[in-house]
């Protein structure tokens, strides 16, 4: 399958970020993995921010999204994460937004999305993402239990990393109730423990973390590239 991006999201991935893209797609499984990786990076205090776009339900005829995506924004050095966060905060000031303003892809205008992506274009981070056409998922275990589906997708994008993720501090948008968060943490610790992917795993509120907002803007852009019926002109 040829992996395509439409409108200004094509500009975002091909021109704004100077990364090499590695794309794997399975029509039978209905999922694709995208890895946008910088040409050089160090292995110092790796930190990862995760967010999703679309919902994990399978009642598509009743309004569930056809496409579900999860993106990892990977910093190989926490200092680079801090520098990127500062760029985003400066953009917020330049746009005359309050310090409590939250960048969200689904609420942002086209102009604001482009401004945001340009601000982070030279920042040093990597992107890994998994994109799923849910109609091509046939497992009853995944289709009938949306939490299991969500947990499984996060595990997949973290686990199959070509040895590029080790001992990472992982931060996920802090949605979901206490039971969901506990079950996800236990599941990932069990599934990823022997691979030493995670150093720790924490939930973070997006409204107070601009790097969770960064992952939201990136995964939103990626998922939008699959929604061919959308027009951004």
Protein architecture, described:
With 233 residues, this protein is of the alpha/beta class. The chain has one domain: Nucleotidyltransferase, domain 5, CATH 3.30.420. It is 36% helix and 22% strand. The chain contains seven helices and seven strands, in the order αββββααβααβαβα. The protein has helices at residues 7-16, 78-94, 110-119, 140-143, 146-159, 178-192, 210-224, and strands at residues 20-26, 31-37, 47-53, 67-75, 126-133, 168-173, 198-204. It has a seven-stranded mixed β-sheet. Helix 5 (146-159) runs parallel beside helix 6. The protein is globular, with a radius of gyration of 17 Å.
Question: In a nutshell, what does this entry contain?
Answer:
The protein has seven helices and seven strands, in the order H-E-E-E-E-H-H-E-H-H-E-H-E-H. With 233 residues, the chain is α/β, with parallel strands linked by helices. Mean pLDDT is 83; it is low at 1-12, 17-28 and 38-43.
Shape: globular
Main pleated sheet: 7 strands, mixed
CATH superfamily: Ribonuclease H-like superfamily/Ribonuclease H
User: How many helices?
Assistant: 7
Which runs of at least 5 residues are low in confidence (pLDDT < 50)?
1-12, 17-28, 38-43
Overall domain count: 1
Summing up helix and strand content along with how strands pair, one would put the structural category as: alpha/beta
The overall average pLDDT, rounded, is: 83
Oligomer: single chain
Based on CA atoms alone, the radius of gyration comes out at: 17 Å
Element layout with pairings:
Elements: H1 7-16, E1 20-26, E2 31-37, E3 47-53, E4 67-75, H2 78-94, H3 110-119, E5 126-133, H4 140-143, H5 146-159, E6 168-173, H6 178-192, E7 198-204, H7 210-224
Parallel strand pairs: 3-6, 6-7
Antiparallel strand pairs: 1-2, 2-5, 3-4, 4-5
Helix pairs in contact: 5-6
